[in-house]
């Protein structure tokens, strides 16, 4: 059916739906009211259904027309967005992919700073924890959880993964804890906040305690468990308990005192977060500036 209906017909239909007035739709499209009416009538004939009804001078969509209007608007918006990288005028759109925790805790502020200094560059952030989507070559830049090697991406270290228990000052005061002298056994008996491990190499509380030189005897039973690491950190900031802090990701919260380290045991996992640029193609000027911006200050 689509091969018999020109794209123009859907553009006319979309305008008619937005204005609910054929004359105003025609003015936007630089055609006459009669031309809009003919195109809508032809579209109805091709689809075999009524799309509009008239109530006096007012137009209304039929149920079928309402469903089609929603789909046409979504499709045209998607097409408009897809064509954005090909527009002229000096504007450039670049894409970067990162996990939810990196996007929420580290990347968002740096992208805002970059945007303020680069008004001619538009950045599209893909937030996902799926390894295949993170490493997709459709992205211009990526931030990968890795040991530093990848077949398709040249990786530069952003931060090592060093894990330690952290809690808010309110939680520490409420439970009368000594954040320096507290032992792993005492930490294990507190309200632990954990998160789901979407990657086999991720470390949660059970693995963290198990890797200590002297693991605690208490059974590790988190009181809360969240679907993402960022949500676990947010819960710790609210004073709900103790979570594992990845030092690089929560550096701002540690520096401000919103979170405090508990004990002296730190675990360096051998993994970390790396900024990737394509191995087999050159960066665009905007992507190169963003790459440099994210590495500055490290």
TrEMBL record:
SUPFAM superfamilies: Periplasmic binding protein-like II (SSF53850), Winged helix' DNA-binding domain (SSF46785). GO terms for biological process: DNA-templated transcription. The keyword DNA-binding applies. Residues 5-62 form the HTH lysR-type domain. One of its GO terms (molecular function) is DNA-binding transcription factor activity. It comes from the Bacteria. Keywords: DNA-binding, Transcription, Transcription regulation. PROSITE patterns: HTH_LYSR. Pfam families: HTH_1, LysR_substrate. The keyword Transcription applies. InterPro entries: LysR-type_TF_proteobact-type, LysR_HTH_N, LysR_subst-bd, WH-like_DNA-bd_sf, WH_DNA-bd_sf. Belongs to the LysR transcriptional regulatory family. This is LysR family transcriptional regulator. It comes from Aliirhizobium smilacinae.
């Amino acid at each position: 059916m689509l091969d018999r209906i020109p794209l123009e017909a859907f553009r006319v239909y979309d305008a008619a739906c937005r204005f609910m007035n054929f004359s105003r739709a025609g003015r936007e499209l630089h055609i006459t009211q009669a031309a809009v009416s003919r195109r809508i009538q032809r579209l109805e004939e091709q689809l075999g259904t009524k799309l509009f009804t008239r109530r006096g001078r007012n137009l209304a969509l039929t149920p079928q027309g309402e469903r089609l209007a929603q789909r046409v608007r979504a499709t045209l918006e998607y097409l408009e967005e897809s064509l954005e990288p090909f527009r002229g005028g000096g504007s450039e759109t670049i894409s970067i992919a990162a996990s939810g925790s990196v996007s929420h805790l580290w990347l968002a502020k740096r992208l805002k700073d970059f945007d303020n200094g680069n008004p001619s560059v538009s950045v599209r952030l893909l937030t996902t924890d799926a390894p295949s989507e993170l490493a997709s070559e459709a992205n211009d830049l990526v931030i990968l959880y890795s040991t530093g090697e990848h077949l398709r991406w040249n990786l530069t270290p952003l931060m090592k993964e060093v894990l330690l228990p952290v809690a808010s000052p309110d939680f520490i005061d409420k439970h009368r804890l000594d954040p320096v002298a507290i032992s792993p056994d005492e930490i294990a008996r507190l309200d632990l906040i954990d998160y789901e491990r979407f990657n086999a190499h991720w470390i949660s509380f059970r693995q963290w305690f198990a890797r200590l030189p002297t693991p605690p005897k208490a059974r590790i039973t988190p009181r809360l468990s969240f679907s993402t690491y960022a949500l676990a950190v947010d819960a710790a900031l609210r004073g709900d308990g103790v979570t594992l802090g990845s030092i690089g990701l929560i550096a701002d919260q540690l520096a401000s005192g919103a979170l405090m380290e508990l004990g002296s045991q730190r675990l360096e996992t051998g993994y970390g977060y790396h900024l990737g640029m394509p191995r087999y193609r050159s960066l665009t000027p905007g992507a190169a500036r963003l790459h440099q911006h994210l590495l500055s200050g490290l």
